[in-house]
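Intended use. Records like the one below are meant for learning the mapping from a protein sequence to its folded structure. Do not use them to infer anything beyond what is encoded.
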Amino acid sequence: MNGFEFKERYTVDDLRLIVKALRGENGCPWDKVQTHATLRKDFIEEVYEAVEAIDCESPEMLREELGDVLLQVVFHADIEEDEGRFNLDDVADEVCKKLVERHPHVFGELKLNTPDEVLKSWDSIKKEKKNQTYTDTLNAVPKVFPALMRSQKLQKRASRAGMDFESEAQAFESLKSEVAEAENALASKDVNAIAEELGDVLFSCVNVARLSGLDAEELLTASCEKFIGRFAAVEDMARQNGKDMTSLSIDGLDSYWKKAK
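Structure written out for the chain above:
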């Protein structure tokens, strides 16, 4: 590219220039036609890949995936800059001001000594700034979050208004009640009732997890991985016996499954 300076090491400023070049008049045909909407799915995928890198405890992988996330941020900011609404510096300015404002115990005179005190202060500042009702705080939880994550955040915010169980045992009793209602709905063959009651069961499971100090999203992820591992063991045992899984009866598969457990 004419005028482009190849370097041994690039910076965030170079990334901004590269994105501008990609989206410029003589840039890449694909990059030039992208919008916030077309990049939306890519943004989500890149964040999940960064999270996976964290789970893998791989600094090399994390460095690469954070770069992909940063590219998304710079790309979206560049689209807005072309529209004359804001640029990357405006994004940095806003988050810097937010951090300073919400950390008066670091940048001011307020004394906070524990993480819980900090969280309460953070929430108080947010609520005061936006003059929020408790319902507003629930509506502020993004609808695009994975359902388990959204459920847990909604429950946590509702608890700040005093709407919560006193213990995980109490939440578990509610779960059992919801299971009974789901069982009745299944017996009725009413699809709408079944859907509603099963949703309540899932929501109640999240309550039990939250009050037990656990993350429901992480728990289901771990169960998915456990299922894959046991499924693989069942398939391996079947193959060792010269059989395909699809040729086995449900009782035969269940026998292998119990061995896998």
